[in-house]
Amino acid sequence: MSDEPRPPGPEPTPGPGQTSPGDPAPSGVSSGSSAPGETPVGPPEPVRAPEQTGIVDLHDTRAIPSSSPYAVPARAPQSGASPSGGSSTTGQPGSDDAWFDVFGEHPSGVPGAPARADSAAGDAAGDAAGPGGAPPSDGGAPRTDERPAPASRRGRGKLVAAVAGLCLLSGVVGGVAGQVAEDRVNLAGSTLPDPGPGATQRPAGSVANIAAVALPSVVTIKVSGGSEGSATGSGFVVDGKGHVLTNNHVVQGGVNGDIEVVLSNGDTEKATIVGRDASYDLAVLKIGRTDLTPLRLGPSDKVVVGDQVIAVGAPLGLDQTVTTGIVSALNRPVTPGDPGESSYINAIQTDAAINPGNSGGPLLDMSGSVIGVNSAIARVPGTSGSTGGSIGLGFAIPSDQARRTADQLIATGKATHPVIGVELNRTFSGDGAQVTDEPGAVTAGGPADKAGVKPGDVVVGFEGKRVRTPDQLVVSIRARAVGDTVTLKVKRGDAELELRMTLEADPGS
What we know:
six-stranded antiparallel β-barrel
């Protein structure tokens, strides 16, 4: 069969054995009810004049007759087929299959359109075939030149879609109704608990798990210092006796004022100062609660650059705030505070966001242990203490130092400071820390005097690390404990000496 369009010729008059005019039977293919081995007999296919129709079909191309806008050309007569012998009616005028061959769909509701394939007549015709598409039992032979009449393509599709949509809708409605009923039963007998901060069900070692465990032990400190103003900071519980560790600069204004501690659940407790030390910027408070869980102090000497850390506190008064970062540097010499009460911190540097109000809060490692007490932040040069915020450089007092100082403050209300017994020249502009070149600059009988330090010597090294400024030397000494033995590298003229000494307590502390 050619794919070129073929216009219909004059419609022939149906003869004996023909079912409908106008549809040719393909040559070499049996049709109708001819018995096997017999040669089909029928009139020759009429010759048609070429004419464009405008409609292209993969199987056939026919013109739409002008007699009716919905008439369908009949197919060629089938030789030997009996009109009543069980042959298919596909191809007759008004047949559903012929309609689909031309239009590809069924125009429902259009006057003159044939009946739909899923109508009662179409279903009855489909029932005439035996199981599995076998020919009917009335003697009619299968026709191999035509497709079996298909079921409705669009009608049944819409019906199936409608049934599926109805089932889905009923399932949704039933599920919602069931859930509402269940909620009513559950809510009738219990109340929903308020969600707590963090998530203890998270894996151990995750930030969420560590935060959930630590937050109940972290407090917000509010100080009303009267004429000295007010302040807000952070702190954390260090034992089961109601002791809270924080920064000295947080509670300094409350020496002659009032201090309140706000717990994680919102309870407020009055607090008193047990002891404080400006040099280490640490203070211990006491509250009346003994049922709080203390945080564990870990070893800060095991911390390395790159370790992950978590800062907890009340930055800008926003209590129960958690930020994360890493240890970005160690042994940073930091001297925050006023010149009269400067603190000397051999600090842990972190990029975890620390802002005003974080002071006194814990810096945790990924096991939940405290490795530092957040104390200071770096500021852009030119900004004052009341402006600016985190720029990714925060500093924490190492936990080893905080533990020693807290124990001393709880026991005696004071902390001891290790010293070597020298007076440093603050105007020296060279590299290192110079001992003042004056009589009495080296304390008689002190550690430095015993080790052989002289006025005018320049200390350029401490425990194998280079010393560049006087503050760096002081910070390095204060990070040690009384009784530790240390080594100093001293430059005297062109000579360099290594001197060993044992640190002693500052008589004035």
